[in-house]
Amino acid sequence: MNAYDTTARTFPCGLGSLVSNLLQLEFALRVSLHLDEPKEQWLAYDTFRRATAGSTLPLTRLTSWENLGDLVRDFNAGQRARGAMLIDEGVIELRHMLAHGRITQESMDSPPYFFVRFAKPAGDRVTVESRQTVTLEWLEEQVRRTYRAGVTVWARIDEQRKSLLT
């Protein structure tokens, strides 16, 4: 088996795991921040399952257009105030790289891949904001990193649920 065959099988799986973790992390952050809102603003538990295209919902932390950076910073501010574990804010740049970066490789026959992300243009020029070599080892570490962040948020959600029962 050549490098391309191995990469063609493992890279998409690793990238899919990473994207899945980031999507789950964002939703968990929204749930936790929503539970910190006044109870009269809470949405019913099954709101998303019942919502259809064209539905109108109240604006809450669950439905806002806040980006992952805002959510992580707000969550961490609450965690800091409680003296609890923070989320690695590096996941924000990771998400930006996946959403707004370009992926390429030096050769179609072999890894590694490279993510390149550009800043907003200044006139007719653009600055490379970040460049990351994407090896399978790096990808696996990012999957673990985002998983740990999710575990931190779900631990907070469990605390919030328990406090609702008392």
- Approximate helicity band: 55-70%
- Give the integer mean of the pLDDT values: 88
Which spans of ≥5 residues are poorly predicted at pLDDT below 50? 1-5
**What summary fits the major beta sheet?**
3 strands, antiparallel
Gap between N and C termini, in Å? 58 Å
Helix-strand pattern, N to C?
A: HHHHEEEH
Q: Which shape, going by the Cα principal axes?
A: globular
Q: What is the number of helices?
A: 5
With strands numbered from the N-terminus, the spatial order across the biggest sheet is 1-2-3
Total beta strands? 3
In terms of DSSP E residues, the strand content is 5-15%
User: Structural class of the helices, strands and pairings?
Assistant: alpha+beta
Radius of gyration: 19 Å
Count of distinct structural domains: 1
Defining key terms:
166 residues, alpha+beta, 5 helices, 13% strand, globular, disordered N terminus
Mind explaining what this structure looks like?
- With 166 residues, the chain is an alpha+beta fold.
- It has one domain (3-47, 59-165).
- The protein is 56% helix and 13% strand.
- The protein is built from five helices and three strands; from the N terminus they run H-H-H-H-E-E-E-H.
- The chain has helices at 3-35, 47-50, 68-82, 90-100, 136-165; strands at 102-107, 110-118, 128-134.
- It has a three-stranded antiparallel β-sheet with strand order 1-2-3.
- Strand 1 and strand 2 (110-118) form a beta hairpin.
- The chain is globular and about 60 Å long.
- The chain starts with a helix and ends with a helix.
- The model is unreliable at 1-5 (pLDDT under 50).
